[in-house]
Amino acid sequence: MLDANNTLGIVFFPAYDWAISPTHPEREERLLYTQDQLREEGLFDIGGVREYKPDVAAKEDVTRIHFCIPDISRVTTQSHLISAGGAIKAARLVMEKEEDKAFALVRPPGHHAMKVVHGSRGFCNINIEAVMIEYIRETYGPMKIAIVDTDCHHGDGTQDIYWHDPQTLFISLHQDGRTMYPGSGFPFETGGPQALGKTINVPLPPTTGDEGFLYVLDHLVLPILDDFKPDLIINSAGQDNHFSDPITNMNFSAQGYAELNARLNPDIAVLEGGYSIRGGLPYTNLGIVLAMCGLDYSQIREPDYNPTALRQQSRITDYIKKLSDEVLDLYFNPPREPADGKVQRGYFVREKGIYYDTDGITEEQVESVLLCDQCSGMIKIETRSSLNPRSLCVEIPIGACDRCADTGRRIIEEGHFRGKDRYLQLIDRRAKQYLQYGY
Amino acid sequence: MNPAAITRLNLSTTLSTNAIIEGKTEDVGVIVSAGPGIDPENHRIGRHYHIVSGSIDHRGTMIQDLNRSELDAALTSCRTAGVRVFATIGKFSTRNPEHEHTMAEKIGPESDFITMGHTLSGVLNFPRRIATACFNSAVWRTYDDFAWAVEESVVDFGLRAETNILKADGGTMPLAGSRKVPVETILSGPAASVMGIMALCDIQEDSIILDIGGTTTDIAVFADGAPVIENEGMTVGSYPTLVRSLKLRPIGIGGDSALHVSSQQVRVGPDRKGPSLATCPQYPQGSVDSPNRVCVPTLTDAMNYLGLADFGDREASIQGIRELAELWETDVDALANRSVRYALERITTAVRELVHEINEKPVYTISELLKGKRIEPKKVYVMGGPAQAFAGLLEQSFGLDVVVPEHYAYANAIGAALTQTTMDALLFADTQKGRLFIPNLNIQKKINRNYDRKQAESDAKRYLLEHLKHIGVAIDGLHPEITESESFNLVEGPVTAGRIIRIKCQIRPGVIGKAISPVR
User: Fold this and answer.
1) What is the DSSP string of A331-345?
2) Which of residues 15-34 of A touch B (CB under 8 A)?
């Protein structure tokens, strides 16, 4: 019988009774064949591998990280709280040393959900990794965390949430935004004024294969992680770079995913996208699971795997090498100021237009971060959308200085007096207070 | 007694169990076809394990044909070694058994018996399927001889009873039908005791059953009046299998468990060094902690000392506990009390863990996660030698009603006699492929595109009963129940291309009537 070299907790929750719509990629059937494959392989009989039920995320787990406009109950369903709860369960297993590693194999995904939530974008309502990470920090204390997002789509939601946080390194490997939803994730997006270089974007050209992904991992991701020295490594394990995925154009294989995971060696993996539910996911998930256990995965092969057809073209290889060098330099020598936004009266201000493709909502935002040399800075967001009138949101970050904390609270008070904002919300990580007014 | 008046003969045998435990089984030619995934070398079992290329995917689509020359080579090797029984196992054979059939057909003339993996269970678990099929063939010859002998005896005694064999899931199967699946007869003993309690008591609520024996205490759990079954199957030695069994958790605490004293604490078990002092043929010589001594102070002795029990030679118990206390220069009462408390705590902890484990069993729908059934035991049923002595203490530590059934000493025999037929079947339908498959009933049928869950549920019940009838079970009064029922839309591009339907159907373990106390 097999024994895992690392014990692994798998939080498997396929939500067999939930779909965005009957034929939507995010439907009941999505993890059915993955479960069949894992069961038939006898995975849960491997010594050191255990399956767990997800937790259900509490309201506070969400409101400590998101501004849900008008309210959490209007932008989430039980399915979202369970998939976020699955990620939380995975984190608890690792943090409480019940398991060496954990994999939240849950749906629906979360990495397109931004700080402010008016609805669903890219099949995501709440950012399940961010909910998990802030649960970790709230419960087990502050720590440096690296997120490596290997979903084919730019993790724009996670990027937005951690844009100003120097304690969170966000690295996204994805298909070039000029050819793929959500159209962002370019190298010049390197983080806010007080976290420059802590957001790293690697837009890969269509048809990138195993060789390209592993090159970026070895020459870019691992050196950066060596330097950043995170306390925890999280893999946003989207699996839509797979060559058989119906909505993307990459040539990554199950072998590649397993190899990437083995070299990255994450503490926690969280499933994101991946919609090749029969020809891809059963094999990529098996590969990731075996790699996390430290077991052999060399005999995994998809039915349609054809190494000749998937071999990466040399011009793609050359492009990726050059891109890797450029992005590596952006981490070690970040620009002096962000490419987007400007300084206004002590704040760094940027304006954002956000489209919620799944729900068809448009949002306009003005985000201002208080420039501060004592802490990462209080953040004020004014938001309005096609669904909701103007609302005001303030976040006082973990470790905020007195000035930032006081300013944040004053802005909310003033908001009440002025009465121009329909909804007012405060996230005060210092006082652990999460307040919503107006709903 | 008039032999002709006997209508049912239920037998429990340890033949197959012992053969496996003692390694006295026949060599099996195990031929597996795995395809990609975890290296099948990890599942090697026995000396004649052969891997043949070929693959079938999770939907039962054949991806790669079976490699005939590799199969020939495997068979040549088995032939040379004189192997006469075989097991053929394919990955995903419970979705499509084609490779297993092909292998079996090829072996056919050279063998006395072949087990095809899919005929044992519809559950997905390739390594368990391999071990189960291998064990099935390994004990086949021994069991088959036994079955012949039983059939002859039945005739000799002038019996016309239907003859059944006990299984580990608390049910029976007809003797004739059992010849093909002898592996299902292993470890049926403990289940019979649990079914005996079911016959002796009217169990309706969530309950705990404790069978306190000499060496171990077996814990079983009832949910809504029915015993909880292992998710996939029992584990035999180090091999997880697909043999259905009751969920039984043995812990190393029994009446004869030795007491271990140290400066820190008093422990009980898990070892047994012969019977308790109370029942030792003569009071042994030498120090109570000498490693070679046969009878040492035990849990029963501690209970005898405290007056909680009056079992065998109480004086011998008292003397032994005193000697042990003197040796450690500790208070005698305290030592005896701590022993009993330790045993109680171990039992209650193990029960809580088992109930927790059952309640934490993963579920896969939002509605089950939020509104799923949770087991909350209301009663504890205790049987075995120390049952009466433990009842009061268990009542305190569980805070639940504790029942010690009358005649519990015969629970095993009563359970064996009154247990009914059990059977389960998994139906798998794929309307895009137009196929229905029930692996362990060996049913493959064409279905049309409109085939739905309702039809599948009724088919599963119907085929299950037909199968039972075919193997000689009187099906009157048997009611198959649907335990799982799922239907998934199979979407290709923007359209629904079919449905995948999965039904699990079973006849749950039960007893015929209730045991009635004989008139005194």
Assistant:
1) HHS--SS-SS-EEET
2) 15-18, 22-23, 27-29, 32-33
| Other CB atoms within 10 A of residue B42 CB | 14
A420 min Cα distance to partner chain B (Å): 40
Where does the pLDDT of residue B518 fall: very low under 50, low under 70, confident under 90, or very high at 90 and above?
A: very low
* CA-closest candidate to residue B232, choices B224, B220, B223, B241: B241
Distances (CA, A) of A109 to A12, A57, A77, A238, A275: 13, 14, 13, 9, 12
* Residue at B208: amino acid letter: I
Residue contact A17–B365, C-beta within 8 A: yes
* Angle of the B332-359 helix axis to the B299-306 helix axis, nearest 10: 120
Complex confidence, ipTM:
0.94
Using one digit for the tens of pLDDT, what is the confidence trace for A151-193? 999 999 999 999 999 999 999 999 999 999 999 999 999 999 9
Confidence at B520, pLDDT banded by 50, 70, 90: very low
User: Where exactly are the structural domains of chain B?
Assistant: 16-145, 202-249+342-405, 257-330, 423-507
Domain residue limits, chain A: 3-332, 342-437
Q: Helices A78-95 and A128-140: crossing angle, nearest 10°?
A: 40
Nearest CA to A150 among A227, A234, A229? A234
Report the CATH number of the A3-332 domain.
3.40.800.20
Instruction: Using a CB–CB cutoff of 8 Å, tell me whether A47 touches chain B.
Output: no
CATH level 2 (architecture), domain B202-249+342-405: 2-Layer Sandwich (3.30)
CA distance A271 to A251: 19
- What digits encode the pLDDT tens for the residues A316-368? 999 999 999 999 999 999 999 998 999 999 999 999 999 999 999 999 999 99
Q: What is the C-alpha separation between B316 and B339, in angstroms, rounded?
A: 17
Q: Let me know: does B273 contact B168? Beta carbons within 8 Å.
A: no
Give the architecture (CATH level 2) of B16-145: 3-Layer(aba) Sandwich (3.40)
Tokens for B513, please give them: 């009537």
Q: Are A42 and B360 a contacting pair at CB < 8 A?
A: no
**Which band of pLDDT confidence, cut at 50, 70 and 90, is reported for residue B514?**
low
